[in-house]
């Protein structure tokens, strides 16, 4: 049975999963959840995702939520197709991947998401919302300092976990691509040439082109 992705084509975490499905060339059905209408807070939805959030997947009856866990599962069971080595099995390479995955969550996403949500997503969904500039500028300045460490890492290796592309690199696209909407262009800055080189290459990947911006659709076959 084709993998079912329950979420929203314009939501960040759903896009993260769709990105990896495209990288791995996995056909999927997108089931749009009416978030504005509160469908993700209804009893039947909570049976599948107890926190009332999107996305989750149904893969032949196997239900899984948390976008990064879903991506890990997809990369693991479809290891031999699409983009290879997103999930290295060698213990040391996998440990480096775990390190990079933690870096993305703790040192990048925590601040990028905060700034993007405050300055861009909340005002977009609620026209009366006035962003808290302090929250945003604190998140951006912390992120900016963290990117100096990224520059050091990426001056010695091509990607965050080594010289091969992994899930950890790809996860940065979701909020990284929205940072200019929060007024921050530090991922493109010439002052950090290796970060700029890395993010430009990620941004040009066909899988990202398929899911970025204004929504994406089910993919019936590859
Ligand atoms: N850690 C979760 C976060 C999921 C999440 O925050 N989803 C948002 C959309 S991107 C959502 O469902 N928001 C509506 C709500 O929380 O009520 C994941 O990665 O799947």
UniProtKB/TrEMBL annotation:
PROSITE patterns in the record: GST_CTER, GST_NTER
Descriptive protein name: glutathione transferase
Keyword Transferase set for record: yes
Any GO BP annotation: glutathione metabolic process
Catalyses which reaction(s): RX + glutathione = an S-substituted glutathione + a halide anion + H(+)
Family (UniProt): Belongs to the GST superfamily.
The keyword Transferase is assigned to this record: yes
Domain GST N-terminal: 1-82
Pfam families linked to this entry: GST_C, GST_N
All residue ranges annotated as the GST C-terminal domain in the record: 90-222
GO MF, any single term: glutathione transferase activity
Enzyme class: transferase
Keywords tagged on the record: Transferase
EC number: 2.5.1.18
GO CC terms: cytoplasm
């Amino acid at each position: 049975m084709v993998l079912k992705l329950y979420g929203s084509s314009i939501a960040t975490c759903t896009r993260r999963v769709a990105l990896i499905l495209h990288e791995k060339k996995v056909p999927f059905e997108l089931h749009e959840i009416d978030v504005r209408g509160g469908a993700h807070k209804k009893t039947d939805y909570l049976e599948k995702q107890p926190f009332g959030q999107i996305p989750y997947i149904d893969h032949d009856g196997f239900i899984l939520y948390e976008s990064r866990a879903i991506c890990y599962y997809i990369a693991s069971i479809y290891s031999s197709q699409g983009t290879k080595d997103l999930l290295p099995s060698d213990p040391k390479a996998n440990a480096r991947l775990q390190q990079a995955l933690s870096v993305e969550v703790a040192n990048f996403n925590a601040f990028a998401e905060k700034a993007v949500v405050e300055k861009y997503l909340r005002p977009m969904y609620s026209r009366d919302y006035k962003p808290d500039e302090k929250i945003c500028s604190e998140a951006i300045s912390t992120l900016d300092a963290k990117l100096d460490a990224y520059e050091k890492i990426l001056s010695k290796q091509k990607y965050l976990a080594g010289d091969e592309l992994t899930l950890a690199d790809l996860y940065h696209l979701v909020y990284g691509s929205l940072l200019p909407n929060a007024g921050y262009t530090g991922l493109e800055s010439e002052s950090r040439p290796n970060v700029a080189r890395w993010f430009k290459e990620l941004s040009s990947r066909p899988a990202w082109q398929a899911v970025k911006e204004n929504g994406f659709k089910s993919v019936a076959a590859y």
